Amino acid sequence: MKRLHARPAAAGGSDRGSGAIAVVIFALLFIALAAFVVDGGMTVAKRERAADLAEQAARAAAQDIDVDALRSAADLGATAPINYTDCDADIRTFLEAAGLDGDDVRASHCVAPTNADQVTVQVQLTYQPMLSGFFLSGDQHAKGVASAQSLTR
């Protein structure tokens, strides 16, 4: 005669495989968190770089002084007027020398207030998110704005 062994029934059903599901969920959450940390750091770095380039480009544009107006001024050089009409060309020359992409150079420009005493520059940097690109579509842009004045004192 054969003996039949009855298995005791679990109170809430089988827990088999629930650990694997928890591991998969936590792994996905960890990867998503890492993606946002890495891409967030990249965003901060690109914004700082755009601000630095804007400051340098504004200085480069402010150094383009109208020499004829400077020499003919009644105050004998106390003021140094900026060739603000050449501002866009000056910053594009600087940004190309700094190694920016052509699209970013074309998107960067002088903004108001721009006059003989002060130039204001906006620089754009384009970057592709590394890990959160699955959630964000297309390129991301970081912009920096800076001003420079012409002072002779």
From TrEMBL:
Q: Does the keyword Transmembrane apply?
A: yes
Query: Which Pfam families does UniProt cross-reference here?
Result: Tad
Using the record's annotation, list all stretches that form the Putative Flp pilus-assembly TadG-like N-terminal domain. Answer: 17-64
Give the matching InterPro entries: Tad_N
| Keywords from the UniProt entry | Membrane, Transmembrane, Transmembrane helix
**Membrane-spanning segments:** 20-38
The name on file for this protein is Putative Flp pilus-assembly TadG-like N-terminal domain-containing protein
